[in-house]
Hints:
By secondary structure, the chain is an alpha/beta fold. It has a single domain (about 1-210), classed as Rossmann fold. It has helices at about 15-25, 30-40, 45-55, 60-70, 90-100, 115-125, 165-190, 205-215; strands spanning about 1-5, 30, 80-85, 110-115, 125-130, 135-140, 190-195. The relative contact order is 0.19. The mean pLDDT is about 95. It binds adenosine-5'-diphosphate (ADP) and zinc ion (ZN). Adenosine-5'-diphosphate binds near residues 35, 88 and 171.
Amino acid sequence: MNIVIMGAQGTGKGTVAGLLKGDLNIPHISTGEIFRKNIKEETELGKIATKYADEGKLVPDEVTNEMVKNRLEEKDCNNGFILDGYPRNLIQAEKLDEILADKGKKVDMVIYLTTPTNEIVERVMARRECPKCKRVYNMVLNKPKTGEICDDCGVELIKRADDTEEKLKTRLDIFFKETKPVIDFYNKKGIVREEEISLSINRLAIDVAKDIIKDVK
Length: 217
Ligand code: ADP
Ligand code: ZN
């Protein structure tokens, strides 16, 4: 099953994708994470990406498209994948269709996560990440067992450099301007499954993931 997971920042894409991955036995491909890894390792790709990611802006399409195309060619994608963070605009959405069509594949399902904006800001500000295993915690919703230390690695959690209120605003603006139209693009194909994740309705990422797994299997 070829899945694209979409939604504004902090809606829980990474968390839901992580839960689906284990159950459906397909890889979780996060373009943001691939960029952050390349930036950290100072690769050529990282050197290009850092200028944009630092500002909360999109890395140019040609660079991103090429990276995704290469990643989807890896063997572990043969039985499907969960793409998180791509496509982010219509150019990328059309490119993804083309990449998949070349292999006789298509996007089977788009999971669109929504969350009230006030909760988004709160959630992103409370987000912490393990620099070692990349596990994502939330100091309100999903705290580690002790302080701000990773349960699995014992190392101190960090805040992502772009998780400041100012950069979040830029990222949300881009989401509503450029990425929202991609959801309409997939809506026309009738493959969007919209799910709200919100404390106000007592529905968390785990509930959504469970429902999707139940329906897919
Ligand atoms: P966000 O929480 O803003 O969705 P991500 O972790 O998905 O952040 O991505 C981090 C950064 O990586 C983005 O701000 C952007 O610079 C870059 N990036 C990730 N995915 C894409 C994409 N599909 N197209 C262009 N840039 C991307
Ligand atoms: Zn860890």
